[in-house]
Structures are given as structure tokens and as C-alpha cells.
């Protein structure tokens, strides 16, 4: 068991049988009363974010989470198969664990997978990926007060909003956290 003095950003805590990632923490020592640690925790499995306060010196259960580099190989129906870049072992990860990252996964793409006791917790994508536009309607210029956007389908099948000048076959950079268009790539 560790104490609240060991809480840092990125540490994973086990609270009531669930794993919570520390997003933010702040040690507070008010002029009156005992010190405490205010934290913002994100549930590893569901993504739910909560605020939790611990008394200073309270015991917390810190879990060992191993983040390792993997290469995405292929989709096997309801699971995704990844290969460890260090020892070439294959790991099958369920679609629920992969979550929204599936919208941006291409074969041979590098990702990080967080493991706890060899069980995959979540897949961490790079901040942005380069994808090719496979389908989009031609953009029509018209009278607008601001730049217009149109829907476009990328090679993974995910639909994003792009500016009107982007055409089919164009490679674009996409933010994996929000799914936003970031720009064209030559």
C-alpha cells in the first residue's frame, strides 16, 4: 500500500475494484484543518471522469500498469490482433477495449497498449494519423460568411468533416482524440 504522497499524474489507482488513472492532482494545506489531496480521476475502462479528495497520508492502492509498444496487424471479427514490437508475441484485444481507436487503426500502425497483469486496459493512439479520403462529394463554392465543410469517408470507414476543397484520394491528417481534420499531407 502506498500513501497519498505517492499520487502523481499518470498513476493508476485501484478503488473499489475499479482502475482509475490520475489525470490531475493537487496537494492542499489549508490554514485551518488537515491537509488533503484533491484529484481528478478517469476510469480506465469506461472513460468516466470524477473528482475525488483523499485525506493527506491516507493509504491508496497503486496498480502496476505496463505501457508497451505494439503494431496493429488485423481485425479478427470481434477482436483486434496486435504484435508486441519487442518479443513479437501476438495479443488479441476485444473491440470494447479498443473503443474509438478502431476508427483510426490501419495495418502496421504503431500504438501503445496499457497492460495490467497481462490484461489489456486500453489502446493509446498517436495524437494524429494520416489517412486517405476514399469518398467525398465534390465541394461547391457559394455565398458563405465562413469556410464550409463537407462529410468525407477515410480509408478506415470513419466519416470526418473536411473543407470543401479536399477531394477524393487526398491524404489528410486527423486528430485521433476528437476526429477533427487537421490538414492535408503531401
Describe this structure in words.
- The chain has one helix and 17 strands.
- It has 186 residues and is an all-beta fold.
- The protein has a five-stranded antiparallel sheet, with no helix packed on it. A five-stranded antiparallel sheet has the order 10-9-8-11-12.
Determine Rg (CA atoms, Å): 21 Å
Fraction in helix: under 10%
Report strand %.
over 45%
Number of strands: 17
Overall body shape: flat
Between the first and last Cα atoms, what is the distance in angstroms? Answer: 52 Å
Strand order of the largest sheet: 5-4-3-2-7
* Number of discrete helical segments: 1
User: How are helices and strands ordered from N to C?
Assistant: EEEEEEEEEEHEEEEEEE
Class computed from helices, strands and strand pairing: mainly beta
Low-pLDDT residue spans: none
Largest sheet, described in full? 5 strands, antiparallel
Q: Give the mean pLDDT.
A: 89
Break the fold down into its secondary structure elements and pairings.
Blueprint: E1 2-3, E2 12-15, E3 18-28, E4 36-43, E5 49-55, E6 59-60, E7 62-63, E8 66-76, E9 79-84, E10 90-94, H1 95-98, E11 110-116, E12 119-124, E13 128-136, E14 149-154, E15 159-163, E16 171-175, E17 181-185
Antiparallel strand pairs: 1-6, 2-3, 2-7, 3-4, 4-5, 8-9, 8-11, 9-10, 11-12, 13-14, 13-16, 14-15, 16-17
Labels describing this entry:
186 residues; mainly beta; five-stranded antiparallel sheet; 17 strands; 2% helix; 54% strand
